[in-house]
Write a structure and sequence with these properties.
Layout: H1 7-15, H2 30-39, E1 52-56, H3 62-74, E2 83-89, H4 90-106, E3 110-113, H5 115-118, E4 125-126, H6 129-132, E5 140-146, H7 149-159
Parallel strand pairs: 1-2, 2-5, 3-4, 3-5
Length: 164
Amino acid sequence: QTIDEFGRAGATEVMRARGYVDVLIPRGSADLIRTVVTESTVPVIETGAGVVHIVLDESAREDWAVDIVRNAKVQRPSVCNAVETLLVHSAAADRILPAVLTALTDAGVTVHADDRALRLAPDAVPATEEDWATEHMSLDISVKIVDSLDEAIAHIRRYSTQHT
């Protein structure tokens, strides 16, 4: 059973309901998970924070890219499986990225772009090293242009939390 909306007090009560609750599987921010693991008297299956990536390879279709990226960021930005970083192949960037960025900014997303993506994203803020490893859990996304799938994989290996 899931408990979606009953606040911090209710969550604390469930965390202390040993004998009534068999196990808790917290989903949410790193802070929430840490709190449940630390404070629960009920057994906990620990999940992790997510720095989820989407890679748009050079063969990506613009219409699919727009729909997938917008949905993955905007639908529920505070969940651990919301996208946080978008990696776009340089051969597709000029063709796909403007439409994706427009869809994101129209939905209120703040784009944190690397130097190469900034030229296609005039409303973006420059990405910092910290952005690549951040689980924003908000309407923020980091965007980087890469030259190969190998470069995208290397980026993911470096900054991923290995959530799933």
